[in-house]
């Protein structure tokens, strides 16, 4: 309850300001102007920073409080890369088989191969958007792997569900499942990742500065989150791998992120 009380004033203000935006769903699948601009071809991006950059911008653009989206990103596509905790853009999970790749091209090829084998439930990109349950989110697999479009879609979906419920926790929980046991298991891990997001925010800002795109890196304020249910595609639940490798990244006595136990293919 202390977690909820700490954000109550912020949530009320955000909801009051944004209610009108949820009435019209006609343009939901159209990315925001910022996402369209960032997705245009240009300079090469640093994969270790681009997801975080887009997440910090989306949190500000869509008024998502408490670094919630950053915590979700860590849980969905977090990776220790060259000694740094980050969120990886070129990642896919095909029905429980999750993998990090070195490039968008290799990721897209793997996704298409799985689709050719009849796999329908595939999550892609920074925020692991599911292509089966969100078939109109992206025009192609490559578009789904674009960090700006992937993060923007995830942010708008979360905000739209908040508009329906008036509660960030319930909104994020509905993104995953209406079944309490699945939500609760995920949320026990997500709160820890959100705490990590706030605790290491300065480090994440530095990583974000290495991403390439229009505009500067936004300043996200560290803040507590409301208690309750968020979202997930529950990446490693069926593989059983999370308990083996997702909780051992830092020494004892230090808060540990809970990351997807995917295979690193590079």
TrEMBL record:
Name by which UniProt lists this protein = Transglycosylase family protein
Q: Which InterPro entries match?
A: Lysozyme-like_dom_sf, Transglycosylase_SLT_dom_1
A Pfam entry, by short name:
SLT
Q: Where is the Transglycosylase SLT domain?
A: 122-185
Reply yes or no: does the keyword Magnesium apply.
Answer: no
Q: Which family does it belong to?
A: Belongs to the virb1 family.
Keyword Transport belongs to the record:
no
Record's keyword terms, sorted: Plasmid
């Amino acid at each position: 309850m202390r977690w909820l009380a700490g954000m109550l004033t912020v949530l009320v203000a955000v909801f009051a300001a944004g209610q009108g935006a949820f009435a019209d769903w006609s343009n939901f699948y159209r990315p925001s102007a910022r996402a369209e601009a960032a997705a245009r071809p240009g300079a090469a991006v640093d994969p270790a920073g681009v997801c975080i950059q887009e997440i910090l911008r989306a949190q500000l653009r869509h008024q998502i409080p408490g670094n919630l989206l950053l915590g979700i990103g860590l849980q969905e596509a977090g990776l220790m890369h060259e000694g740094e905790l980050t969120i990886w853009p070129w990642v896919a999970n095909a029905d429980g088989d999750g993998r990090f790749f070195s490039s968008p091209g290799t990721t897209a090829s793997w996704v298409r191969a799985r689709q050719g084998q009849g796999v329908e439930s595939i999550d892609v990109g920074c925020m692991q958007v599911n292509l089966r349950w969100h078939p109109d989110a992206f025009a192609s697999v490559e578009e789904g792997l674009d960090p700006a479009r992937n993060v923007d879609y995830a942010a708008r979906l979360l905000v739209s569900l908040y508009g329906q419920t008036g509660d960030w926790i319930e909104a994020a929980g509905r993104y995953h499942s209406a079944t309490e046991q699945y939500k609760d298991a995920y949320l026990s891990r997500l709160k820890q990742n959100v705490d990590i997001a706030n605790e290491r925010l300065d480090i994440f800002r530095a990583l974000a500065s290495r991403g390439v795109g229009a505009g500067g890196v936004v300043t996200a304020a560290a803040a507590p989150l409301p208690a309750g249910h968020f979202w997930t595609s529950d990446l490693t639940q069926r593989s059983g791998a999370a308990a083996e490798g997702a909780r051992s990244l830092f020494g004892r006595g230090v808060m540990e992120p809970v990351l997807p136990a995917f295979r690193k293919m590079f």
